[in-house]
Amino acid sequence: MKKIGDMMKNNTLKMTSLCMLTIGISQFASAEMTRATLPLLKAEQLPTWCDSNLKKIQQEISSFEKIPAKTDAAAAPILAKWDKIFAHLEDFSGPIGLYSNVDPDAKLRKAAEDCEIKINQFHTDIFQNSKLYNVIKNTKATDPIDKKYRQDILDQFEDTGVQLEPAKRARMKAILDELTKLEQEYNRNIRDNPEKLEFTPEEMKGLPESYISGLKKNTKGNYLLGFEYPEYRPFMELADNDDARKRYQIAFTRRGTEQNLKLLKQAIDLRYELAQLFGKASYADWVLKDRMAKTPEAVNQFLAEVQKTVAPLERKEVEELRLFKSQTLKTPLDKTEITRWSEAYWSEKLRKIKYQIDQEKLRDYFPTLAAQKWLFAISSDLYSIDFKPVKVKAWQSEVEYYDVVDKKTGKLLGGLYMDKFPREGKYGHAAVWGVYGGSTLTNRLPVSALVTNFNRKGLNSDELETFVHEFGHALHGILSNTRYASQSGTSVERDFVEAPSQMYEEWARRKETLSKVADYCDPACPRVDDELIARLKAVHNYGRGLRYARQTLYAQYDMALHTADALKVKPLETWQKMEAATTLGYVPTTEFPGQFGHLMGGYQAGYYGYMWSEVLALDMLSAYGDNLNNPQVGQRYRQTILSQGSQKPAAELVKDFLGRDPDNKAFFNEITGQRVK
Ligand SMILES: [Zn+2]
C-alpha cells in the first residue's frame, strides 16, 4: 500500500495479548510520548482480525456519514475526525501491507494478501460514497494546511468516481477491481515462473566459485539457473560465453510468459476506458493532473530533452566499449560488435581494468554493521536525532527496532524497524514501508520499516548506496511532523517521493562522509581515501549515457502506452519499434513488456517520476555545497522538507528549502558529467 519500492537495481509469531487483536496497535508508555510498535499476528487469526477491524472502521464511517452536510461548516474538526478514521484503518492496513511481503510464515503472507484485496475494495466503496463526499465538500477550510488536506480528500473522491452518474460509477468500481486482478496475475506469472535454464560447466566459465558452488545441478552435471536477480545479474556480467548470455537474456525477457503481453494490453485498454469515464483524453492525462508534472506534454517534453542529451553520450560509450573489446580480443574494430547481451559483460570488464573497481573487494571497506552505525551517526549529526535500540518482539527474530529521539528536546519522534538480511519467502528487493503516519493533532507517532537483503559481512558500493537511499525514505516517514496522519512523510506526489532518497545517495559517494565508515569498524577495516573516491566517482560516471538512455526509453515507452491512441497500441510492437531505434537495437524474440512490473504495479504513466525526482534531488543537494555534514543545512532540510510531508505541494517545499524556484541545471550537469558538487 504505502510501499516505496525501487528501480531496476533490490517462526510463527505469537500474539502477546488478545487486545492487540482488536486494537491493532500495541502501546508502551514512555516519559512523554507513546511508542507505537506493530501488532504480531498468527495466520489463523488474521482473517478474523481483518474482518473485525474493517467492521469497526465501517461503524466509524457510518457515524461520519451522519454529520449534517452544512454549508461552510468549519473544516478543522471534520478533517480531524476523517483523519482519525484513516489512522485507525492504517493501524491494521499498515502491518498487513508489510506482513504480506516479509512475514516468515507463507500462510500468513497469503492471508495478508487476501486482506489487502478486501481493504482495496473497502477503499473504493468509501471514496464512491457521495454522503461522505458532501460532508467534506461543504466544509470551509481557513488555513493553508486544512485547505490542502480538504482538497486532497476531495480529489481522492473525485478520482474514484464519486461524481460520476451511477452506471459509470459502477463501471469504475468494476474496472478498479479488474485492474487489481490483472496486476496480481501479471506479477504472479513473473514471480512464480518455475522455468530453469540448463548451462554446461563450459558455459559457466568466468563466474566465480562462490557463485557456482551455490547452484543446483541436474543429473547430467549441468547447472540450472532461474530468473532471480542474484542468479541472472552475475551471469550477464561475468560469463565468458556469448551465446550462453544471449540465450539467458532472451529467456529472461520472456519470463513473464506470453500471457503477460495480453494482460498488459487488457490493463492499458481498461485504463483508457477509465480515463474516458472522466472525459479525459488519455490515462496519462487522468493520472498526471495530481502530479508535479501536471500534463503528458510536460513529461514528454522533459523526456525528449533528456533523450537529446543522452543519445550522443550513449553512442560514445558503446563506441568506447567496442574499442575496448577489439583491443582486448585483438579483433579488427570494424568486425567488433557490442550487443545487448554483451553490454553488461564488457562494461564490467572495463570497470575492473580501467577503473580498478572490484565490487567484491569493496565489502572489506563497508562491513554491514559498521555501515549501519555510520549511517546512524551521520543522520544523527545532520538532523540532530538519536537512534536508541529497544528490544521489541517483531515478525522475525533478527528484526531490529529503534526509537528515534530528538536530540535537543529528548522527544520521541517515531520508530524504525530494520529487516536487513535475506531469507526464504521474503520480499526480494529493497524497500521501505511507511507503516504508520504521524499526526501532531493526536500525538500519533510515525513508524517505518526498512527491508533489504544484504550480505551479512559487508556491502559493495552499490549496496551501500541502496542502504542510504532506503534510509532516506525511512527518515522521510519518521521525521514527519504533520498535523494529519494522512499527510505524513512519503504521502507526497509520486514524482517527488524519490527525491529525498536520491539526494541522500550522495552521502555514500563523497569523501567527507565515506571516510568516516572506518571509525565504526570492529575489527579495523581499510579507510576510504582520495584515491578510492576518485575511482568510485569515475566508475559512477562511466555508463551514464547507457543508464539514462535506458531509463528514458522505459519512461517514453510507458507514456506511449497510455496515450489517447491506447486502443490501437500493441505493447510488443510498440516496444520493438522503440527499442530498435536505440544504439543497441532490438533483439528478435525478446519480450520485455511481459516483465516490466512497474507498468503493472503503480508506476504506469509514472515511470518518468524517477528522473523527475532526480532533477529535484540534485537541485536540493546543491544547497550543501562542499560539505554534506553541514548540520545547519541538514536541519533546515529537516524542517522545510522532511517534516512537512504533503502539507504543501512539493514544488513549494523545494522552494522553501532552496529559497528559489527549482531548476534542472544540476540534473543535466550530472547526465553530462559536468556536476562539480
Ligand atoms: Zn526509493
What's the structural blueprint in terms of helices and strands?
Layout: E1 3-4, H1 19-23, E2 26-29, E3 34-37, H2 46-65, E4 73-74, H3 75-102, H4 106-127, H5 130-137, E5 139-140, H6 144-159, H7 166-191, E6 197-199, H8 209-212, E7 216-217, E8 223-225, H9 229-238, H10 242-253, H11 257-277, H12 283-288, H13 296-329, H14 343-355, H15 359-362, H16 368-383, E9 385-389, E10 400-406, E11 412-419, E12 431-436, E13 447-451, H17 461-478, H18 499-504, H19 511-514, H20 530-541, H21 544-561, H22 571-580, H23 609-621, H24 631-640, H25 650-658, H26 665-671
Parallel strand pairs: 4-5, 11-13
Antiparallel strand pairs: 1-12, 2-3, 6-8, 7-8, 9-10, 10-11, 12-13
Helix pairs in contact: 2-3, 2-4, 3-4, 4-7, 5-6, 7-11, 13-14, 13-21, 21-22, 23-26
- Helix count equals 26
Fraction of residues in helix:
40-55%
Q: Spell out which ligands are present.
A: zinc ion
Q: Provide the structure class.
A: alpha+beta
Report the uncertain regions: 5-31
Give the termini distance in whole angstroms: 36 Å
Major sheet attributes: 6 strands, mixed
Order of the strands making up the biggest sheet: 1-12-13-11-10-9
User: What general form does the structure show?
Assistant: globular
* Secondary structure tally: strands: 13
Task: Please state the CA-atom Rg, rounded to the nearest Å.
Answer: 25 Å
Average pLDDT confidence is 92
**How big a fraction of the residues is strand?**
5-15%
How would you explain this protein's 3D organization?
The chain is α+β, with helices and mostly antiparallel strands and 677 residues long. The protein has 26 helices and 13 strands. The strands form 4 sheets. It has a 6-stranded mixed sheet. A hairpin with a 5-residue loop joins strand 7 and strand 8. The protein is globular and about 80 Å long. It starts with a strand and ends in a 6-residue tail after the last helix. The relative contact order is 0.12. Residues 5-31 have low confidence and may be disordered. The structure holds zinc ion.
